[in-house]
Amino acid sequence: MDAKLFADAAGLIRGDRQETYGDALANNERIAGLWSSYLGVNVTAVDVAKMMVLLKLSRSRTKYHRDNYVDAVAYLLLAEDFDNGSTD
Known about the structure:
Helix content is 77%, strand content 0%. The chain is mainly alpha-helical and 88 residues long. The protein has one domain.
């Protein structure tokens, strides 16, 4: 197991990405609203994070790029934060 993978993923959601894109929960809620309107079904911020994990896993099938795994773990960490009400 690569502990650095988890550290890198946590660093993304607490550092660079947050500075670049703003609050992750607000961003995922905005995406959820757009997807809900487009699909005609209710999509939550947790759903968005989980579906982004699936997107990253799909991309990893073609060729190894570590970024796909780091991002997938980061989205999974966000999903857990959103699902348990923690956004720290």
